Amino acid sequence: MDSISQLSLTASIALYPSISLSLLRCLTLSPSLSLSLACSSVCLSVCPGISGSHTQRSAFLLQASSRLKQMEKDYAQKLAKSIQALQEKAEGLQRQLHSSEKKLLNKELEIQEQVTAVRQDCEVRIKGLLPAELQRELEDTITSLKAQVNFLQKRASLLQEDLEAHRKGNAVPLL
Questions:
Q1: Residue 173 in domain
Q2: Exposed end of the chain (fewer CB within 10 Å): N or C?
């Protein structure tokens, strides 16, 4: 279908909705009829005022084409405005998401600090609950156990050296 036929069909349908039915009837009754002839005959049947010369029909088609172009331009502008509005809304939602994520992170840090403070407070309270004498005894026991561990580590080290020397063939008496 050539562009003039498309233009004439689109213009006719846009201006006169009843044309689409007439065009279908015309093409159904005469399948060999070209689309441009069908459009012309439908336009002439629906709009008898344009049945004049070729110049009048051309003027009608130009007017219809102009209207269609204006409609296309209007819809393109509406689409551009809608796209811009959607982009602005998406950007706003992204900013809101980023802000919410920052707030959440700050809240998590705040809660973590609170947990640490509560834990430290509990440890201080537990220490304060032990009687001073019991606390001193426990500290003395801890100190004594540390000294015993150090002594045993040194003894184990000496025994290890003796074992290694004995394995090498040096006759060093084992303790």
A1: yes
A2: C
